[in-house]
Amino acid sequence: MNYLTGTGLLGSLMTGANLLRGSRDTPLTWRSALAWVSWGITMALAIGAAIDTRRAKQGRPVSHDSPVYAKQKKQQEKDAKKGIKPLKR
To answer: Which keywords appear in this protein's UniProt record, sorted alphabetically (predicted)?
Structure first.
């Protein structure tokens, strides 16, 4: 549940609400279409970050291109030095 209240996701939802309110009275132009595409990309990135954070907290591997990967890799190296075996799922 706390992943749903992350700042990236909340910010994206609020931006979408503002775009929706602003687009009610104006015609669709290339600028508004570009704003919606940008919002969609932002929303997808926020959801992906929340999913990666959840996977990392569960001890499951995350993708190499994720911002969470470096933190997870560092934690795995610390655990390996301490002799803690990784979870297998």
So the answer is: Membrane, Transmembrane, Transmembrane helix
